[in-house]
Amino acid sequence: METVQDLLNPANDSISIVEDPKSGDVSLPGATLVEIRDHKCFKELLQLGEAHRFAANTKLNTESSRSHAILMVHIKRSVKGRNSSLSSENGSVTLMGKTLKPPVVRKSKLVIVDLAGSERIDKSGSEGHTLEEAKSINLSLSALGKCINALAENSAHVPVRDSKLTRLLRDSFGGTARTSLVITIGPSPRHRGETSSTIMFGQRAMKVENMVKIKEEFDYKSLSRRLEIQLDKLIAEHERQQKAFQDEIERMALEAQKHISEVELSYADALEKEKLRCQTDYVESVKRLEQEWKEKQEKHGHGKVKVGPSDDGTDQKSNGATLRSAIGSRLVNFKTIPPVLFAPGEVAEIKQKLHNEILLRKAAEAEIDNLKSQLIHWKQTEAARNAELLKFRKMLEDEVCQKAKLEEEIEMLQSQLLQISFEADESRRNLDRGMGGNTPSSMDSLMPEVKHQQLRNSGDGEKASVVKLFEQVGLHKILTLLESEDADVRIHAVKVVANLAAEESNQEKIVEAGGLTSLLTLLRSSNDETVHRVAAGAIANLAMNETNQELIMSQGGISLLSLTAAKAQDPQTLRMVAGAIANLCGNDKLQAKLRAEGGVRALLGMVGCRHPDVLAQVARGIANFAKCESRASSQGDILRLLGPPTETC
Fold it and tell me: In which ranges do the ARM repeats occur (predicted)?
């Protein structure tokens, strides 16, 4: 009844169909999507969906399906050994000297459709609601038949929007899927009309050709998660190092302050002790001199020392007091006591003791000077410590600035990652469509016009993205990537060149920039069959131009293509090579070189592949070759090249 119902959730009976305006993919966002764990789970889901289907009893069938049923299985697989290490121009991300390689994911979708059979009301006897269901079934099948007829007749317009059934199955007919159609008929003569129309429908469907392709893309979500984890680790490591650096600065500052305090305290204690010692020695020396003087005075009496009145009238007692006073103040002047006489030995002894006292005083002064110099040294050390602290503070400020720059770089890398992800998705979709729709394929050019018409409405945004990518990156940088040591980089670069070569406006630029020479060199030097397939497709696109055809021949292109055909095992590679040689066969000036360099022989040798796409290209090449020769000469050349009939031919 032109409504989409979820058989895994029957309550959801009004699901809308959403179409991506850029890629043209059709999806059902409201439908239930279940992750399959094992074969048993998958079988249970099939039984559950089958139980919810509508069926009714008619005159022709006791359990007649009243609706079409569609099973969609989405498969996603990571491709091992295909991690891409692209340059910055091609979408890779380089951080801290390491190249992050996004994993490659291969996607596929299996669609199994059970179409309800068409009904004739006079035979089925449908009434009421069953009659309305029969009308809707017949209308949707009629819409599907119109689409098949349009594709089979190479019509410019395919009415896929006439029914929700055709919208959901647009990729299955005339798209990029591998499609099989099973039709059922009855042996009864009564239903001869239905049997005849069903067989005719199957015959028309057989004329539709699909372009099968592998859908691979980068898993940028996984790469984004890896980047975020690595950035978190870098930030945590930076913060840890910064904290350790600050702790080390604080520890050194505390040690320097503690050392300075200890030195100052030890200097003050040493200075105080030295001062007390000098004072004590001084007092003891004075007392000892006084005692010795008294003892000598008592011992000798008047024999050796004569004390008499002085010139100013003072007696001996007053002179003795004056002497003690002079000695106590260390201003002893023996000349002021002329009456007192000492023995020569005693005078020498006193002089010796005074000399010793002077030496002790000088030693104390030297010790004080040494302590002062140590104090100055420690002050200088403190100043150096302060300068070092200032240096560390400066380094800390630089680290803070570096951290801010690193955070800005992290934000910039995150924004670049988002931009790269967006541009890579745009480029991938454009490259896939370019390889699927722009490569010369075909028998009788049945599909290209239909596909160009289908892409005309939905591909404007993609073409704009290709132009944007071409303008931003530049042709010379793209051609430089053809010489990269990384195989994946070369493959993607060749895909871009092949996609650009599909436009006639870009072919002259590619040839002038040396793109044709680079493609031939890549075909000669590489051993990767994927590179051979894509490079041959790009050369086939360039070979559509007559001037480029002569350049390909002059640079030994036909020999390289023949050698590639002899080595290739993949039917798609042979299809690309056959398409390139078929384009060269349409040039009248190149017939002799094609025969001499083995081009026609290589074309005929690819018949053994037996793949329908390869056979179509071989047939097109032979047709082009025959058009350029006269009937007699072309027949003779072909027979001569073929030789005796073989089972393969």
Answer: 473-515, 514-557
Q: Rounded to an integer, what distance in angstroms lies between the CA atom of residue 89 and that of residue 71?
A: 41
Q: DSSP for 533-587?
A: HHHHHHHHHHTTSHHHHHHHHHTTHHHHHHHHHHH---HHHHHHHHHHHHHHTT-
Q: How far is the C-alpha of 416 from the C-alpha of 413, rounded, in Å?
A: 5
Count the helix, strand and coil residues of the chain and give each as a percent rounded to the nearest 5: 65, 5, 30
Contact 462, 429 (CB under 8 A): yes
Q: Is the backbone of residue 229 left (phi > 0), alpha (psi -120 to 50) or beta?
A: alpha
The fraction of the chain above a pLDDT of 70, given in percent, is: 77
| CB burial string 130-158: b at 16+ within 10 A, e below | beebbebbbebbebbbbbbbbbbeeeeeb
Q: Residue 30: which pLDDT band, with cuts at 50, 70 and 90?
A: confident
Q: Pick the closest to residue 575 from 511, 510, 522, 620 (CA basis).
A: 620
Tokens of 554: 């002059």
pLDDT at 435 over 60: no
Residue 633 has pLDDT above 90, yes or no: no
Spatial separation of the C-alpha atoms in residues 430 and 492, rounded to whole Å = 12
HSE at residue 504, side-chain half, CA atoms within 13 A, is 4
* Cα 252 to Cα 238, 387, 392, 550, 555, distances in angstroms: 21, 13, 10, 79, 74
pLDDT band at 233 (very low <50, low <70, confident <90, very high): very high
Backbone angles phi, psi at 478, to 5 degrees: -65, -45
* Residue-wise pLDDT tens digits, 184-228: 888 888 888 888 888 988 888 888 888 777 777 777 777 788 788
CB 136 within 8 A of CB 91: no
User: Residue 328 pLDDT more than 90?
Assistant: no
pTM: 0.37
Residue 498: burial class (beta carbons within 10 Å; 0-12, 13-18, 19+)? buried
Contact call for residues 620 and 603 (beta carbons, < 8 A)? no
What is the pLDDT, as a whole number, of residue 389? 87
**Whole-number Å distance between alpha carbons of 144 and 163:** 8
3-class SS of residue 484 = coil
**Mean of the per-residue pLDDT values of the chain:** 76
